Amino acid sequence: MNRRTVIKMLGTAIPALYLSKFSYGQGDWAKVPFSPDWASLERYRVPEWFRDAKFGIWAHWGPQCQPERGDWYARGMYEEGSDQYNYHVKTYGHPSEFGFKDVINQWKAEQWDADSLMDLYARTGAQYFMALANHHDNLDLYASSHQQWNSTKVGPKKDIVAGWERAAKKRGMRFGVSVHAAHAWTWYETAQRSDKNGPFKGIPFDGKLTESDGKGRWWQGLDPQNLYAQNHPLSKSSEDGHSIHKQWHWDVSTGVNVPTRAYCENFRDRTIELIDNYRPDIVYFDDTALPLWPISDVGLEIAAHFYNENQKWNGGKLQAVINGKILNEQQRKCMVWDIERGQSNRIEPEPWQTCTCIGAWHYDRRIYDSNRYKSAKTVIHMLVDVVSKNGNLLLSVPLRGDGSLDDKARRVVEGIADWMQVNSEAVIGSRPWHVFGEGPAQENAPELNAQGFNEGKGKPFTAEDIRFTTKGKDLFAIILGVPDQEKVLIKSLGKANAKRKKISKIVMLGRADSLGFTQHSAYLEITLPKHSKRNDIAFVFKIS
């Protein structure tokens, strides 16, 4: 469906639906020149490096980590009576007097050490690193000429993206940026409100302030509307805290307030500048399909520009990856499908990605205090399951507001690293087998919901759950637990089931000696080495 078809379907009475005249940067150097439409983007092919990578780490870190009160803080602090509102009033003051712009001013990132963190991340075997470029809070974490509210001018007064980029590329890791700011228009609508009760009843929050209100204040010369983008009527049902989710897809029938042309084009220009100046290998969009689709074609323009420019950087070879969510079959040919906090239940025909976090997307001190981080075991099991189905895992490791990694999160990352240093051969550079696995967990696997969100809803993995990967002529069988007995039975590798030649050798990764085995008609029986030290997370058989 092209842009003009969308406009025809929705009617010409909606003035904010428009076609742009942006030049998206085609050239003779592009072996596959892309134009900003879905049919053209279908010519995309996922680069081999991403198929091989399998594991990436994400710093979903920005000013919303400063209060250490969890995800979507810059929205929740304006919702009267909510946990984040109550915390904000107690900690900082009323949102009419101390808004999120003021939280940004307190964020200094004084303990952030990108090189030290990247040394740790590299130990895990992660092949790519993702930096948050902006979130729904609309602060660019890079030097932006199109957004005065950026981290080089306010808050830490540092180019966060540049610091991450240098550290990742220095260690040979592919570099990505995640872009979330397209939704600021509706996401910040809570900042237009006022309290309905109490001593501040009827006093507006700071979401409608303008540059003229800043005389004599720390933000003098800055226009809060360039951050909050709230000089517009509220979307219908905006008092319903769940309306933001219903309106996420920019479906005008939901009563969403449609952004202006200027807003859409500013978002495009910011993102194009990010791509051109930092040359990422991956751009992750926290959007259905592409940003601002279908009310604007700027997302298509960004995608075409990125693919064309990336070929220019790489001698005509396309090495770019775009992540998008809730993709239809056509769109899954145009970019890499991302599933948020969830996994597919089958081997997908095209590479895909799961993104998740060991805690909250933005740092939440309560998760640390209550010991609720995902364990290294949980992460490895998720990684292995995803990889067996032709996917990659992008893991967010939360940082504190000051940029430091707390001791409990560090232990999780170190546990992942310890396991990967022995067993990464079965993960990095692997491909799926003809079946992804066997065992009780797959029999009750939950279905995906919207962006994903089926994580943790199925049965936990046990030693009866096995996942398969391949590399060259070798097959890897990954046992997701420690068996009670000294034998492991694998039904998928019985003579009647295994689509492979006769097995000649089996070793356990981390050991040099061969293992005893018998290939029966209905199963493969492997004898475990006696008195062996086995990792309680998972262990791997390499089958030749």
Structure at a glance:
The protein has 17 helices and 16 strands. With 544 residues, the protein is of the alpha/beta class. It is globular.
Protein architecture, described:
The protein has 544 residues and is an alpha/beta fold. The protein has helices spanning 3-10, 38-41, 48-53, 73-76, 83-91, 100-106, 114-123, 160-170, 184-187, 225-228, 243-246, 261-278, 298-313, 365-369, 376-388, 407-423, 440-443, and strands spanning 55-59, 128-134, 174-179, 282-288, 321-325, 336-340, 352-357, 391-396, 437-438, 466-471, 474-479, 487-490, 506-508, 517-519, 524-527, 539-543. Strands 1-2-3-4-5-6-7-8 form an 8-stranded parallel β-barrel. It has a 5-stranded antiparallel sheet with strand order 9-10-11-16-13. Strands 12-15-14 form a 3-stranded antiparallel sheet, with no helix packed on it. Strand 14 and strand 15 (524-527) form a beta hairpin. Helix 15 (376-388) crosses helix 16. 48% of the residues are buried.
Structural class: alpha/beta
Number of E-type strands: 16
Question: Approximately what portion of the residues adopt beta-strand conformation?
Answer: 5-15%
Q: Ranges with pLDDT <50 over ≥5 residues? A: 1-28
Percentage of residues in helical conformation: 25-40%
Radius of gyration: 25 Å
Distance between the termini: 48 Å
Overall mean pLDDT: 92
The order of strands across the largest sheet is: 1-2-3-4-5-6-7-8
Q: Count of DSSP helices?
A: 17
**Sheet of most strands:** 8 strands, parallel, barrel
Overall body shape: globular
